[in-house]
Amino acid sequence: MAKNEIDFSELLDLARLRTDCEAIVKDGALKQLEARGALLPVLRKASVEGRKKARELLAKDGSGLACARRISWLQDQIITVLHDIVVAGFHPEGKDIAVAAVGGYGRGTLAPGSDIDLLFLLPEKNSDAMRKAVEFLLYVLWDLGFKVGHATRTVEECIGLSKGDMTIRTAILESRYICGSAPLVTDLETRFDKEIVADTGPEFIAAKLAERDARHQKAGDTRYLVEPNVKEGKGGLRDLHTLFWIAKYYYRVRDPAELVKFGVLSREETRLFEKADDFLWAVRCHMHFLTGKAEERLSFDIQREIAESLGYQSRPGLSAVERFMKHYFLVSKNVGDLTRILCAALEEQQAKAAPGLTRRVISRFTKRLHKIPGTLDFVEDRGRINLADPDVFKRDPINIIRFFHVADINGLELHPDALKRMTRSLSLIDQTVRENDEANRLFISMLTSRRDPALMLRRMNEAGVLGRFIPEFGKVVAMMQFNMYHHYTVDEHLIRSVEALSEVDQGRSAEIHPLSNTLMPGIEERTVLYVAVLLHDVAKGRQEDHSIAGARIARKLCPRLGLNPKQTELVVWLIEQHLLMSMTAQTRDLHDRKTITDFAEKVQSMDRLKLLLVLTICDIRAVGPGVWNGWKGQLLRTLYYETELLLSGGFSEVSRKERAKLAEEELFQALGDWSQKDRRTYSKLHYQPYLLSVSLEDQVRHATFIRDTDKAGQALATMVRTDNFHAITEITVLAPDHPRLLSIIAGACAAAGANIADAQIFTTSDGRALDTILINREFPVDEDELRRAGTISRMIEDVLSGKKRLPEVIATRAKSRKRNKTFVLPPSVTLSNTLSNKFTVIEVECLDRTGLLADITAVLADLSLDIHSAHITTFGEKVIDTFYVTDLVGQKVVNENRQANISARLKAVMAEQEDELRSGMPSGIIAPAPTPTPSRKTKASA
């Protein structure tokens, strides 16, 4: 909507406002302070009602720019009326000052919660009375609740300061007269244009682009964050503002549409600029109205409401909020395209102007072209690849792909002029190009490059080439997933996965995941692995399972990319099973033989196992910062080694009983410096599950811990160990056995703010529980983490001993956390008797909340189920917890009615919207217990 088409009269009865304000001060009876107080309700009412009307009109016409201009106009009127009242009633000298809007407000756009940036211009001969007029006006604006950024200067001061301060220069560039002495603003604009802008275009452009790059770097240097900053983020409003500042400064224009006559933007690109500006303003205005403040981060908790406000509807495979966010990221990408086009035009213009510029500028912009060996279509221009002539792409569309390949093998940056021409040539990439053998060979060469394949893929994606060349990839460009687990859009995640694979391939990840780093040099099917990594999530956003749909896409696409039938089937299998290893490692008991045999049956070969391991690592690492940790790496390594034994025929044929006996003897020998009595006592303390699943090193450490506790006469003790590499802190609890022990420990951890990653549960032969709780590490320094772990241990001991009541401490913790209302996930419960030969496996899936694990384990205790092991996995806002259980006599739960009851009880506790406090939970369990509880005793001896 053009500015002159907006009807501002709906916002405010300006004549009525002026009359009401003048009536307050007309008789001069009120003092200044009293007058300020009397003016406030009148001006506040005008502001509130005007903004309310602007919000209604935004909902009606959907134009963000119109809304921003309405609010700017409304603010102008309030300031003008206030200025006139000050001059008429209190400070007549105020007529000689000028009030100008600067910054974004100077462009005539203002978001509902944004600061109001004002410049008060004083004549060279000014007085204290003028400054008092400024103070009066500012005090009223502050009292109205506005955040006012302001400066009071003469024209001479503005010119002087803008010479050495690029921020001030930018603010003055966008100055706009509001009220007061108009000649002062005119004088500033004339002198600024003559004394500051003239001949300083390159300097200003370089500063603004450097400022933009630093801002992008601070924000993570990607526009594909799933909670983007609409104002400051890459591809956001500030990037559009930067383009406008540069255009206005260099081309002396006041409207982006004027760039068409300079040949900078086409009419279509100008419309793209206007549409992007309008859309981003609409999002920003909705954000401010919705939150009631200057909120610039498009966070999960407001995305759904904004999508609804903007009229998005759900479609098969994509929710309304995901469709809205995809549109947002596509607009953000368009901003990047416009940036490249403008930069190319600027460089071309400045190169033409080089004879009249300084030597420094000449050295930067003079054409210095060099031939690139092996090609006549491209040239090197100061370390950047450019086109030898304007028709390179039109003459041979394969050159669009060849352009990136030549850049890759020669290590060249991309010239903005070439990218501008490429953006305008995307329609040349048709089915003929896609099926061209040479084009596909070049693409695979880049994908599997030993240099930096992710960099080239990202550049192809930014230019719009990747999505055109592989349309299936194009469908996930800018696609976000509405959850807290994935930090990036799907296309960015896939490219980051390739980046992680390249690190492994180049041997640069030995410290992060040593096993894959060791295996990678021996993997023969590099091409298969790179293609599978690039395409593993390419079917996201469809109604069917993305793994199955992705495998079908791969079966069709791989032959086109030049893969033979064997390679194609391997890619298909990897994509279809790309979640298998991750989910098995994180949600299954890796010490249960059935887990390994089931996994090995699906993998079937060592080649597949190696490829799947590397793919899984790259997938997890590319999800987002902090998602990958050493504990997940350890789980994957354990699964790999156990499966390797089975696939290579290395599993021992010795019976479980004999292996447990051998482990007991090894522990006895390892306690060699102890007395014979202690060696016998503490080596015979454990049952088969412990002896077969705990390493000898940990068995010795546990034995020492138990003996020390016994010597101290303690009924309860905890032991802490940190593990920086695995990003896990281990808390071992020795206590009298109790059916609710795990529930109470989990509750104590929740109360202390600890996230449990896993739990190893064992019972000793003398009726005590030896439970090891693994919690996610929080601090990088061991001393800090040990202090935190000590606090958690004390909380566990206090709850177990009855010093603190668990319902109260959990309630305190829950109150301090904001309940998540953003995501909806129906609770799910699955019971299986086929995943383990000995245990019923219960898997629950629901939204995470404080005290959830304690509640679930308490329900399992109420149901007389004995938990053998627990595996807790968190995916953002979602948790998948798996429990290996038996009934009180050590048998699987096979009765269908009982299974249904278990499922119903668990769903009930998971569905609670508030943390229910369990009144029946015991306050302490340290009092001498009766005979060891049957459930733990039976389980341990099973």
From TrEMBL:
E.C. code: 2.7.7.59, 3.1.4.-
Sequence segments annotated as region (Uridylyltransferase): 1-373
N-terminal signal peptide: none
Positions of the ACT domain: 730-811, 841-920
Residue segments, region Disordered: 918-942
Domain HD: 490-606
CDD domains: ACT_ACR-UUR-like_2, HDc, NT_GlnE_GlnD_like
Source superkingdom: Bacteria
Domain characteristics, as noted in the entry: Has four distinct domains: an N-terminal nucleotidyltransferase (NT) domain responsible for UTase activity, a central HD domain that encodes UR activity, and two C-terminal ACT domains that seem to have a role in glutamine sensing.
Name recorded for this polypeptide: Bifunctional uridylyltransferase/uridylyl-removing enzyme
Species of origin: Neorhizobium turbinariae
Name of the coding gene: glnD
